[in-house]
């Protein structure tokens, strides 16, 4: 087999594999099978998200250590992909709380252009699936970003603000806990400063250290909420 044919062969099967598991349900399939039933009184939390969640446990493993926290972030994912895998990666684990942090990759058009209302709708659908399964919900704002290194032609500021406004209003109307990372972390250009995210999108350890007490406060609020 010549070199060009071999490359084409590899690319074909890589694309075919992605098409067969668009939502990457296989990523956590084995891990999920090993998760035990919740212990009595356990306040299990699943973190559902994209690379910002995925990289969190790698950047600050101590935050997750010894806690009933399950990280189910997958780098690059859009809200549609998360919605497809929500049952396997959240509901099946029987948490008390799910923390949803999503939307930045939709704004970046990782899977092509998306209507902002559809991005919001995917997050709302995850929240409603959780509620139907007696799981408390924390809806996180999209983090600040004023540019994407991998999509330099896109200015994300207006899209992020619009989705965050929809999420905040939706959470208030439906009794979900809203976690406003944006206000706490945005600089005067509606982005993340280099100390919080070297590439302007993915938090540094310092960035995650700002997020950690905020998310734990939100989880505590969700646990005592009526919804």
TrEMBL record:
<dbReference type="InterPro" id="IPR036514">
    <property type="entry name" value="SGNH_hydro_sf"/>
</dbReference>
<feature type="signal peptide">
    <location>
        <begin position="1"/>
        <end position="19"/>
    </location>
</feature>
<protein>
    <submittedName>
        <fullName>Lysophospholipase L1</fullName>
    </submittedName>
</protein>
<dbReference type="GO" id="GO:0004622">
    <property type="term" value="F:phosphatidylcholine lysophospholipase activity"/>
</dbReference>
<keyword id="KW-0732">Signal</keyword>
<feature type="domain" description="SGNH hydrolase-type esterase">
    <location>
        <begin position="49"/>
        <end position="210"/>
    </location>
</feature>
<dbReference type="InterPro" id="IPR051532">
    <property type="entry name" value="Ester_Hydrolysis_Enzymes"/>
</dbReference>
<dbReference type="InterPro" id="IPR013830">
    <property type="entry name" value="SGNH_hydro"/>
</dbReference>
<dbReference type="Pfam" id="PF13472">
    <property type="entry name" value="Lipase_GDSL_2"/>
</dbReference>
């Amino acid at each position: 087999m010549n070199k060009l044919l071999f490359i084409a062969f590899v690319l074909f099967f890589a694309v075919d594999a992605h098409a067969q598991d668009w939502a990457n349900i296989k990523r956590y399939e084995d891990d999920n099978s090993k998760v035990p039933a919740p212990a009595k009184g356990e306040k299990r939390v699943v973190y559902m998200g994209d690379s910002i969640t995925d990289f969190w446990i790698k950047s600050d493993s101590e935050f997750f250590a010894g806690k009933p926290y399950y990280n189910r972030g997958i780098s690059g994912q859009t809200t549609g992909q998360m919605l497809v895998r929500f049952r396997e990666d959240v509901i099946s684990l029987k948490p008390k709380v799910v923390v949803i942090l999503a939307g930045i990759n939709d704004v970046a058009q990782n899977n092509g252009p998306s209507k902002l209302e559809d991005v919001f709708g995917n997050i709302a659908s995850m929240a409603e699936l959780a509620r139907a399964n007696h799981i408390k919900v924390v809806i996180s704002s999209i983090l600040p970003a004023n540019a994407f290194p991998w999509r330099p032609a896109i200015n994300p500021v207006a899209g992020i603000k619009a989705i965050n406004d929809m999420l905040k209003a939706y959470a208030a109307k439906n009794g979900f806990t809203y976690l406003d990372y944006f206000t706490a972390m945005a600089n005067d250009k509606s982005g993340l400063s280099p100390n919080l995210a070297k590439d302007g999108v993915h938090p540094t350890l310092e960035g995650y250290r700002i997020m950690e007490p905020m998310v734990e406060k939100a989880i505590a609020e969700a646990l005592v909420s009526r919804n």
